[in-house]
């Protein structure tokens, strides 16, 4: 614990991290007087897929939101591709939790994806054929092309998740942050999403996702980041995703037998 | 008379009022849409009630400086100042205390309105000789409307609409998904404040025509009405502007067509009429459409259940089911299935078996998700797939597909 608390080091002093997509140092976020995330360090490598794992209320989503500046951290630093967050906004795409919006909002699927092109469109720019083509391409990548003109209220949970991913794709970012992309979706959607994420990795992009299903961690991800308010472990699935680290993260919430089984899932 | 009023033939004042009310209706409808989409409609009620102390203080100050006190620009400037104070208090309360927004609205609304009424009473005793006429700001008073008053509405409305054109994209993004907007680096708080500022501008400009108590109706009824007719936010904005403008124009015309009809309340009632018509008759979201849709769905369920019962030679007890089957010539009056009835029943049963296979098969997962007991399997699977499934079920293949 003491060594965790002592890592308030500043990023610029560290070497070899200038090009890392995401470097977090000493990040603490608190709602009221109770820290949700305490003094967390995180380093993400280019072209990898990282799962953020931890029990309910462990600060997984809060960590993402603090990285993105949606919630204001109490202390700590965030660097994106070697610069401050605001200098690199255009290179980050965020896929929020599906339940965070009202799906009865009067808008069509294609309009949601076009929100991803907000920067290209600007305040007064017209939506042109090239923008429509780009948005349609992104829908195609998540298998939702035929739904472009549907009202978003008619979509199933999995379809909603896929258009959120399509909106992020439209941004053409280099770093993708996803909050529980597989929560409550059907198996077809899960397959579609993971294949898109893997294709992003193949293009050299970086993916970080809050993940809740321990059985698919080894199959889907390269690296894990285990958190329970504090960072517990970080690194490749083969080393950091072990019976010991899971025990430390989840404590009594997972049966020991279950943990042993999970940690042995082949990658 | 009404026709004359609607054709702007009732004289100078009535024409001014009609034009002013139309412009106000358009800008209020458009502005209110963003408030409605952001689910903060009632904030406008707090803002409008917070204008009253400002109007009174402006009057007192202008009289104190030796003026007439009834200068409209001065009074509106005062109302804008106190509405801003109310708005800032409201956003401070919601952001920095544990108070929920609805409670904060209640506090701001009542306190500012109470203060305004106290000041109004003070003014009435203070300047007994002068008829201040400030009560007109409560419910609007258009009797003595001047060219300059109409210009205030026109210019104010035009500025508001221009700003909305500029801010429509960020305001829509923030209304739909504020977290995503924040992640994109949009200043969500400032965009919200700008939206409230626009609402405040419309409120201040509209004080003379509809008054502070009813302006909320012009901000909220048009978007709520427009929402019934479309599923696209940009069209809700346009329709709300149209409905607002229509209400203002017709309402002003109606109130001018007979003596002693108050303009503001009549405008609100016209808007309300549009709302009721939409509520009842709108396709998809309207009440009538919902009832008809439910009945149609109920008939489909009964027909399907009836066919499955026929196929399995089970007795049918429900009268509605029997009636539907008879009306479709699927059973005779004595309850025995007709030729077509037997064929349809056999097909229904076979489709159930086909669905069973589909739902058990991983490969058909996407199709299986569409099962609801009613959907025709032909709309989900290709002919070849159905043939393939039939081969797996076995049994007679001749059942008409």
Q: How much is the radius of gyration of chain A in Å?
A: 19 Å
Q: Could you say what the CATH topology of the largest domain in chain B is called?
A: ABC transporter involved in vitamin B12 uptake, BtuC
CATH homologous superfamily designation of chain A:
P-loop containing nucleotide triphosphate hydrolases
Q: Uncertain runs of chain A with pLDDT below 50, 5 residues or more?
A: 1-11
Order of helices and strands of chain B: HHHHHHHHHHHHHHHHHH
- What integer value in Å does the Rg of chain B equal? 31 Å
Q: Could you tell me how far the N terminus lies from the C terminus of chain B, measured between alpha carbons in angstroms?
A: 66 Å
Q: List low-pLDDT spans of chain B.
A: none
> For the terminal residues of chain A, how far apart are their CA atoms?
30 Å
Shape of chain A: globular
- Summarize the amount of helix of chain B as a percent range: over 70%
Overall SS class of chain A: alpha/beta
Classified by CATH, the class of the largest domain in chain B is Mainly Alpha
Q: How much helix, percentage-wise, in residues of chain A?
A: 25-40%
Tally the beta strands of chain B. 0
Biggest chain pair interface: A-B, 32 and 27 residues
Descriptive account of the structure:
The complex is a heterodimer of chains A (267) and B (401). Chain A is α/β, with parallel strands linked by helices and 267 residues long. Chain A has one domain (2-252): P-loop containing nucleotide triphosphate hydrolases (Rossmann fold, 3-Layer(aba) Sandwich), CATH 3.40.50.300. In chain A, 34% of the residues lie in helices and 23% in strands. A six-stranded mixed sheet of chain A has the order 6-7-8-3-9-10, sandwiched between helices. Chain A has a four-stranded antiparallel sheet with strand order 2-1-4-5. In chain A, α7 links the parallel β7 and β8 (206-210). In chain A, α3 (109-115) packs parallel to α6 (157-170), α5 (129-141) crosses α6 and α6 (157-170) runs parallel beside α7. The longest helix of chain A has 16 residues, at 187-202. Chain A starts with a helix and ends with a helix. With 401 residues, chain B is an all-alpha fold. Chain B folds into two domains: 2-282, ABC transporter involved in vitamin B12 uptake, BtuC (Orthogonal Bundle); 288-393, no CATH class. Helices cover 73% and strands 0% of the residues of chain B. Chain B contains 18 helices and no strands. In chain B, α2 (12-37) packs parallel to α8 (147-176) and α5 packs antiparallel against α6. Chain B is elongated and about 100 Å long. Chains A and B meet through α3 and α4 of A and α8, α9 and α12 of B.
């Amino acid at each position: 614990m003491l060594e965790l608390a002592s890592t308030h080091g500043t990023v610029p002093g560290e070497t070899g991290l200038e090009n890392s997509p995401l470097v977090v140092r000493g990040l603490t976020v608190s709602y009221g007087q109770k820290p949700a995330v305490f003094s967390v360090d995180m380093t993400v490598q280019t072209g990898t897929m990282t799962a953020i794992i931890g029990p309910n209320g462990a600060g997984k989503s809060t960590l993402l939101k603090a990285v993105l500046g949606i919630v204001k951290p109490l202390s700590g630093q965030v660097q994106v591709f070697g610069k401050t967050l605001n200098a690199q906004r255009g290179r980050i795409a965020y896929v929020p939790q599906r339940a965070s919006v009202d799906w009865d909002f009067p808008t069509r699927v294609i309009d949601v994806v076009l929100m991803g092109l907000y920067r290209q469109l600007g305040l007064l720019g017209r939506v042109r054929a090239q923008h429509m083509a780009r948005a349609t391409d992104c829908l195609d990548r998540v298998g939702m092309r035929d739904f472009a003109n549907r009202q978003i209220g008619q979509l199933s949970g999995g379809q909603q998740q896929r258009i959120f991913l399509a909106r992020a794709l439209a941004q053409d970012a280099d770093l993708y942050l996803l909050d529980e992309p597989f929560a409550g979706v059907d198996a077809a959607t899960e397959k579609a999403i993971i294949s898109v994420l893997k294709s992003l990795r193949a293009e050299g992009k970086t993916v970080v996702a809050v993940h809740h299903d321990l059985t698919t961690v080894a199959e889907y991800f390269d690296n894990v980041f285990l958190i329970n308010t504090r960072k517990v472990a970080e690194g490749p699935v083969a080393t950091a995703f072990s019976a010991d680290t899971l025990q430390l993260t989840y404590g009594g919430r997972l049966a020991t037998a279950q943990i042993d089984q999970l940690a042995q899932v082949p990658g | 008379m009404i026709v004359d009023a609607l054709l702007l033939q009732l004289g100078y004042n009535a024409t001014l009022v009609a034009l002013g009310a139309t412009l106000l209706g358009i800008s209020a409808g458009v502005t209110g849409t963003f408030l409605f989409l952001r689910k903060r409609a009632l904030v406008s009620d707090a803002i409008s009630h917070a204008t009253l102390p400002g109007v009174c203080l402006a009057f007192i100050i202008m009289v104190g400086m030796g003026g007439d006190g009834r200068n409209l620009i001065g009074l509106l400037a005062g109302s804008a100042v106190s509405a801003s104070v109310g708005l800032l208090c409201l956003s401070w309360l919601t952001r920095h205390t544990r108070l929920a927004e609805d409670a904060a609205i209640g506090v701001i609304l009542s306190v500012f309105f109470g203060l305004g009424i106290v000041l109004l009473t003070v003014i009435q005793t203070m300047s007994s000789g002068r008829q201040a006429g400030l009560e007109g700001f409560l419910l609007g008073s258009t009797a003595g409307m001047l060219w300059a008053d109409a210009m205030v509405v026109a210019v104010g409305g035009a500025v508001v609409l221009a700003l909305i054109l500029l801010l429509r994209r960020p305001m829509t993004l923030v209304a739909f998904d504020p977290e995503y907007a924040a992640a994109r680096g949009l200043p969500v708080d400032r965009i919200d404040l700008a939206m409230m500022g626009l609402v405040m501008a419309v409120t201040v400009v509209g004080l003379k025509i509809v008054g502070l108590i009813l302006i909320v109706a012009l901000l909220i009824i048009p978007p709520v009405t427009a929402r019934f007719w479309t599923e696209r936010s940009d069209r809700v904005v346009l329709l709300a502007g149209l409905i607002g403008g229509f209400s203002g124009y017709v309402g002003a015309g109606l109130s001018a067509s007979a003596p002693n009809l108050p303009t503001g309340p009549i405008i609100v009632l016209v808007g309300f009429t549009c709302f009721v018509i939409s509520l009842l008759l709108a396709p998809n979201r309207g009440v009538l459409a919902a009832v008809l849709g439910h009945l149609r769905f109920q008939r489909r369920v009964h027909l399907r259940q009836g066919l499955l019962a026929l196929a399995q030679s089970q007795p049918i007890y429900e009268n509605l089911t029997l009636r539907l089957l008879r009306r479709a010539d699927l059973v005779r009056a004595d309850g025995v299935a007709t030729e077509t009835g037997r064929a349809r029943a056999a097909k229904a049963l076979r489709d159930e078996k086909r669905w069973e296979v589909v739902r058990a098969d991983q490969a058909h997962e996407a199709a299986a998700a569409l099962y609801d007991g009613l959907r025709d399997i032909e709309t989900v699977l290709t002919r070849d797939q159905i043939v393939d499934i039939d081969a797996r079920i076995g049994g007679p293949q001749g059942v008409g597909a």
